[in-house]
Amino acid sequence: xxxxxxxxxxxxxxxxxxxxxxxxxxxxxxxxxxxxxxxxxxxxxxxxxxxxxxxxxxxxxxxxxxxxxxxxxxxxxxxxxxxxxxxxxxxxxxxxxxxxxxxxxxxxxxxxxxxxxxxxxxxxxxxxxxxxxxxxxxxxxxxxxxxxxxxxxxxxxxxxxxxxxxxxxxxxxxxxxxxxxxxxxxxxxxxxxxxxxxxxxxxxxxxxxxxxxxxxxxxxxxxxxxxxxxxxxxxxxxxxxxxxxxxxxxxxxxxxxxxxxxxxxxxxxxxxxxxxxxxxxx
Length: 282
Ligand code: GUN
What we know:
The protein is of the alpha/beta class. It folds into two domains: 30-126, Rossmann fold, CATH 3.40.50.10860; 140-262, Rossmann fold (3-Layer(aba) Sandwich), CATH 3.40.50.720. 45% of the residues are buried. The model has no long low-confidence stretch (mean pLDDT 97). The protein contains ten helices and eleven strands. The protein is globular, with a radius of gyration of 19 Å. Strand 2, helix 2 and strand 3 (63-69) form a beta-alpha-beta unit. The strands form three sheets. A six-stranded parallel β-sheet has the order 1-11-8-7-5-6. A three-stranded parallel β-sheet has the order 3-2-4, with helices on both faces.
């Protein structure tokens, strides 16, 4: 068997086009959705992400404002910037790019963002709303994964879903969304004993660890749908996912590539969240 490749680039283009249409409808009412992206420091990967987010925003007919701050910016100065964005009526979504430099309390910064503008869905109140089944913003990456599963027609009710990686950004919200869709969810972490025994039970396997190749073909149940969230740059400069693609595609029924899988969906769903924030304000 050779797995169907789930084309995140094509699906994200479709989502972005729909966002563009809704943004135009809003513009006709005099409201242009605005996203502020705050970048502290010069992390090269973060710089690329921020540039891509801003460009996608503009392409969808929304405004982007990128605020770059030095790596040694005092925490108080960053909090002041967040508060001024909270109060700015032209800004509907605020995203502070992570990771932040070590001297800054990341939790405090996220909690300072107005939850109604928290398009990352990282604010504690948005995490709580998701957990209790009344979400306001879904974190972009898990939201994008759900969109991919939906577009592939993957049946989730009663399915065995296994997630590898339990971060606040991906693994934990992913578990909540799959649970809400009726899957039986197993959330694995770095201490999980015999990871393969868990992953081999999965009808739907989501891998989000940042460890290239942690899941190989022999750890996958024949016919499973495999979603690879990881993206790492290897020593030779190439990009690799958390799933060993060549062995996995021989076992899975469908699999996301890296790059061109989950990554483009994350940006598309950020646009959706920003648009919805603007629509709610309108
Ligand atoms: N760093 C890596 N992924 C993300 C994300 O989704 N949002 C933010 N703000 N920072 C990140």
